[in-house]
């Protein structure tokens, strides 16, 4: 058998030869620019004097960072907490970013306060939509009820359970109507016996009324699900009212649920795409 001929020697810089196969360069060609970093996600929350609020917002931001590690995610607040929106905008120093409101509905804060705060900070940032409505919010509500001890695996148990969707309530009728639509969708898609809306603010209906309505409808078990993002005065008021009204269990606020982190990224991606299309037009 004939032996395989050895590779021909290669000339090397400075004279002489080298044996062995030629080395193939690895990596992008010279002069190729690295892909630009994605715009930062600026998570804008309302803020509260209650320290549990900021702790919850930061925990949710950590979930977003864990889900998308290469995306810079920062928090900013409208009021009470630091850093405020102007501080965060200043730190960005003109770098691309997308503002994502940590709000469930399109009430006054979403329509007026956040856009005004961004204008005052001279921040020309794409503004994402609010979180609701979304099936992911219903998934997060289910999660909190399951954590509170409700068996969600049994359709018959769901069919016997009435749920109070306990929201903040608003002077904006459209915002309250949107919450009622969430309640109707939650009942339709998840098989609850009934879902009643109650408001923690002075705007009716109040939680005892909702619990009584569910009992009258034939629900053998009543659960209360706060439709709120973070602990504070209103969730505490809901828990007290639920106990007084005789609800069988009360879930925690939505808080740092994985579904919320995913939903925030969905809103970020949609706003980024819209901004890119407008820029290209």
Task: Describe, in plain words, how this protein is organized in 3D.
It is a single chain. This protein has helices at 51-67, 85-92, 108-120, 135-147, 155-160, 173-190, 207-216, 233-245, 258-280, and strands at residues 10-11, 17-18, 40-45, 73-77, 97-101, 161-167, 194-199, 221-226, 249-250. The chain is of the alpha/beta class and 281 residues long. The strands form three sheets. It has a four-stranded parallel sheet with strand order 7-6-8-9, with helices on both faces. Helix 1 links the parallel strand 3 (40-45) and strand 4. The protein is elongated and about 70 Å long. It starts with 9 loop residues before the first strand and ends with a helix.
Mean pLDDT: 90
Main beta-sheet annotation:
4 strands, parallel
Uncertain regions: pLDDT < 50 for 5+ in a row? 9-26
The best one-word shape is elongated
Helix content: 40-55%
The portion of residues forming beta strands comes to 5-15%
| Radius of gyration from CA coordinates | 27 Å
Q: Which strand order spans the largest sheet, edge to edge or round the barrel? A: 7-6-8-9
What is the straight-line distance between the termini?
69 Å
- What structural category do the secondary elements indicate? alpha/beta
Number of DSSP-assigned strands: 9
Order of helices and strands: EEEHEHEHHHEHEHEHEH
H/I helix tally? 9
């Amino acid at each position: 058998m004939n032996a395989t001929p050895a590779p021909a020697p290669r000339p090397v810089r400075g004279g002489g030869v080298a044996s062995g196969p030629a080395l193939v360069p690895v990596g992008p060609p010279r002069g190729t620019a690295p892909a630009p970093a994605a715009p930062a996600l600026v998570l804008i929350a309302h803020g509260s004097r209650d320290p549990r609020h900021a702790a919850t917002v930061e925990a949710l931001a950590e979930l977003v960072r864990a889900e998308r590690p290469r995306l810079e995610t920062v928090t900013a607040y409208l009021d009470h907490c630091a850093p405020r929106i102007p501080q965060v905008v200043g730190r960005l120093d003109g770098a691309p970013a997308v503002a994502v409101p940590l709000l469930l509905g399109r009430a006054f804060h979403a329509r007026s306060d956040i856009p005004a705060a961004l204008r005052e900070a001279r921040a020309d940032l794409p503004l994402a939509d609010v979180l609701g409505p979304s099936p992911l919010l219903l998934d997060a509500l289910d999660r909190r009820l399951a954590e509170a001890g409700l068996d969600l695996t049994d359709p018959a148990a769901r069919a016997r359970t009435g749920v109070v969707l306990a929201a903040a309530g608003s002077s904006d009728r459209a915002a309250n109507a949107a919450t009622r639509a969430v309640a109707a969708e939650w009942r339709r898609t998840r098989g609850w016996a009934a879902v009643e809306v109650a408001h923690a603010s002075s705007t009716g209906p109040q939680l005892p009324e909702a619990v009584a309505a569910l009992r009258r409808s034939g629900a053998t078990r009543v659960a209360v699900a706060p439709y709120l993002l973070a602990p504070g005065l209103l969730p505490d008021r809901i828990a007290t009212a639920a106990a007084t009204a005789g609800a069988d269990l009360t879930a925690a606020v939505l808080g740092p649920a994985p579904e919320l982190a995913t939903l925030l990224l969905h809103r970020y991606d949609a706003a980024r795409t819209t901004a890119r299309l407008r820029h290209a037009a």
